[in-house]
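Example record

One chain of 161 residues, shown exactly as stored in the release files.
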Amino acid sequence: MSITQTSPESDPHVAVLAFPFGCHPWPLLSLACKLAFTTPHVRFSFFNTSKSNLKLFSTSQADLPNNFKAYDVLDGVPVGHVFTPGNPVEELELFIKAAPESFGKAMDMVVAETGKTITCLLTDSFLVFACEMAKNMHVKWVSFWVPAPYALSAHIYTDLI
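Predicted structure tokens for this chain:
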């Protein structure tokens, strides 16, 4: 990733990285909008797949603040790809494989477009690569756990269950 993070704290820019499956994008969008409304001096860039953004913003009743903008990232599905019948996780697997590069390229584009370097990553906890991404960018990272707390235990103890 080519993003150099040296922006002063007086010009904060939060990149919000959504996990585009299930109920995950809605609570993250809600949180990002609430934060944007309460901190109008902070720029919020919301990154999500185009398919998920279309569903999210066509059904969301969210009033979007002026300092908030949504961007599409590639979903990892090759052009002309036909999904395997009976394999519902195929789309998820393609996304996860492509996600670090897709989010990185989209953030680079937004930084180039706006001239505002990213100072913080707010990400869905399922996007575990974001920890390393934030470290490499020298920015703060906030991981947002969407599901109910008991689901976290199920994921941690999957091998025992």
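Notes: DSSP finds five helices and five strands in the chain.
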